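Example 3.2
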Amino acid sequence: MARKERVEVRLDGATRRKLDEVASARGASVSEVVRALIERSYEEELVRSRVGAAEELGRMELEDVPEMEVLRRQLEGAHEPRDLR
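Structure, written as tokens:
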């Protein structure tokens, strides 16, 4: 099992109550909810990065456009998690 690190986050009362409500509704701990939200946000950023790259490619005047599956693999390879900015 991977070593877990501790992070301290300061929340106002209203935000903490919302977090507690989400955790309760999911039957999960606050930590589990925070981890899930981080994962979802991370995936959304990857998608946003890849969509931006695809839009940029769409604005280019390319003569030899690769097949969609090839292009998808190339975009995923070029916009791996290490490239989040």
